[in-house]
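Comment on the following before class.
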Amino acid sequence: MENNIVCGCFNVSEQDIKNAINDGVKTFKELQDKTNIGTDCPPCTIDSEVIFNRILKETTN
C-alpha cells in the first residue's frame, strides 16, 4: 500500500507522505508546501488530508 498514489495530479504516494512526516512535516499545509498534494483539485484535497492525518497518527504513535 505504501506506493498507493494519493494525489494523481502530483504523483504523491503514501510513501511520499510518510517520508515527508519523517522529514519533519507536522501539518497538511506543510505537506502541501513540500509536495503540492491536493493543491490542484479540491475533492483530492479532502481525501488527501484524511490520508495524511491517518498516516501522521500511525507514524507518531
Remarks:
- Residues 42-60 form the longest helix (19 residues).
- The helical segments are 14-22, 28-35, 42-60.
